[in-house]
Each structure stands twice: as structure tokens, then as C-alpha cells.
User: What shape does this take?
Amino acid sequence: MTQANKRRLFQLVLLGFMFAIFEVGSCVALKVVPQFRGHAMTKSEFFALQKASIKRTLDGTTEALVVFDGELGWTHGPNTSRPGRKVSAQATRGARSYTATAADGVVRMATFGDSFTYGEEVDDGKDWGALLEKRGNQVEVMNYGVSGYGPGQAYLRFKRRGPESKAQVMMFGLSVWDLPRSMSVSPRFFAPEADFAVKPRYIYKGPGQLELIPSPIKEKKDLQKYYDEPKAILEVGKQHDHFYEKAIFENPLFDYSHTVRLFSVSWVIAKRRMLDPDREFVGARGARIFNTEGAAYHLALELSQRFDQDVKALGAKPIIVIFPDIKNVERMYKNEPGMADQWLKDCLAAGLDCRNATEAFKDYKGDLEPLFMPAGHYSEAGGELVADWFNAVLKDLRK
Assistant: This one.
């Protein structure tokens, strides 16, 4: 072997060794760094989870309360139940059946929103809506909240259920983490480890202009297509989902190299957090606020305005409520800006009755941990504070 060939062989061996080191290091990083989890799964794993999730839905072995809905994507099915939870015949939380209209002297509030509106992680009777009813102040709470909903789905559920509720007060509830949901048609493009689902989304076209993209699956039986042909969901995402990533789903090497996955996912995370003009949040970790220039921000404001107009047309009073997580409550205690502070200001400037449920915690003295459940929702103790705050809000609306 000539000297030149020996050098080439040495270089190839060295390159192979370096690549092996990169592969091992990348593999470890993808498994250890929390930000990479989920997003770094291979496309094969992505589609395998999709098929398993669809099979559960078709077999009827998904969570008992959640049913497929061709308009909303998913919803709480009337007369469904699971241990500790029920959905009434009127599709509200709990077993209670409400009369056609509230009795004299009773204020009925219908609530629409996500898991913070619903009161996830606690059983019936321990959620803030039920605790508010127990206050004995002639209040009824028809809770139409559904976990996983974004503002668009909450608004569409209001359009379906709001008029029949005959409520005098109707609430549009948003949590500080709702904005990303408004930009997708399949939650798995944003959170790959989630169950397979599709949903409608609104696209913000400018002040007063929204375009509704209907849910791509109209009937439960049509889920079979995405079981038989898992890759078909990619075309849906490519057309309508803000979180569809070419660097992942159109990368032929993504499944075959940990290094490629590491760099691809790193790029996606960096783009979503710093470069995308429509990213939902801006600012450093721990101090993020809503991106006032982003489409999701304007979309949430536009939907709130439409909710306000529609509720008034029904002869009821609308309120828009932002629900905080524990980190935003902590920021309030430190006199730091809240994630949604500017949104609330813009909401009020638009003439809407917007309320910040962070105020429910302002007089609390003590450890915050007992007020929140492991996944971040309000415990029964936290729900008590929120119920007290809503009680004061409703008294204010009665004036």
C-alpha cells in the first residue's frame, strides 16, 4: 500500500471514528435533553404512535369522556363517564341536568375553553366551576370546557352550545398556553407524543378577517385512511399546519442518523423560539410574553371580539378570562410582567370585558404547590381561590 493510500485510509478511519462519536453523543443528547424529547422521534416511530392511537379510537378504548367530532375534532360526549367524572345529557361537566332557563334570582354562566376552564386533573365537584356553584350565591355554571382545545375550537363549541344554554353570562376562557393550539390542524405536529387527532383551525387574514379551515376528517370511519396510509397526514400538515416541519418530514436522512436528527430538531426549536415571525412567545426563558406581532396573538383577539359580539346578540353578558399557570402566578408575586399582560390591555382597548384570573391568587400567603396539580391545573384548593374570584366577578356583573 502506497503512502498516499495509507493517508487516505487513515483519514477515512478517523472520519468514521469521529462520526461514531457524533452519533453516540447525539443519541445521548436526544434522550437526555428535555427540549428534544418527542420531537426527536423517528418518522417511523411517529407513524407507529399514530396507528396505535387511531386503533384505540376505532376500537372505542380511548378516554371515556372524549369522543370524535367531525366539526370540532373531539369533544365531551353527552352521557359519558369515567371514574370520578361525568358528562351530562347537555354535554356539560358533571351529572347535573340544568333547567331550560335559570330560576328567578339565579345567575347562569356558560363557560367555554380548554382544560383550565374544564378543571382538569380533579374529579367532579372539586373543579372551580362546581365549587362556585356550592358558594350558595344563586349561581349555576354550565361548564363546556374541553381539554386540549385552542381558542378556535372553544369558539366553535360556543356557537353550537351557547344559544341552548340560555345563560345570562358567557365566558370565553383562555390559558396562557393556548396560542400554539390555534395554529395547528393536528396537535402531533406541535407535540408528537400526543394522541392522534385532527381539528379545525382559523387563519388570521387581517383585522376582522378570519378563514376557517374545517377539520380534515368528517366522520369517525374516515380515520381508517390515516391508519392504512399514515403518511397521508403529512399532506394535511403541509397545507394547513404551522408546525409542520420540512426539516423533519421531508428529510430523507432523519430516520437514519442521530446526528442528523439532533441538528434538525435543534434548528426547528431555534426557529420556533427565535426566528419565526409568527412564534407565539418572545423573550428569554422564564420571562416569555405573548408575541404581539404573531398571527396567533391576533387570532385570539379576533375570536374574543367575535365571541363578545355573538354573546351580546344573544342578550347575554360576555367575559373573556385568562387563566394563569403556576409560573405566571409566581411572576405576579415578583412584580414581573405576566405572559398575557399586553394581550389583556389590547383586549380592554377593544372594548371587551377581559379579566385576569391571576388576581384570584394575589392575596394568598403560602406555598403555591398545593394549589396546583402535577400537570399544572388547579387543585381543589386552587379551585377554591378561583371560585371565590369568579364569585366577585359575577357580583360585579350584577351591578
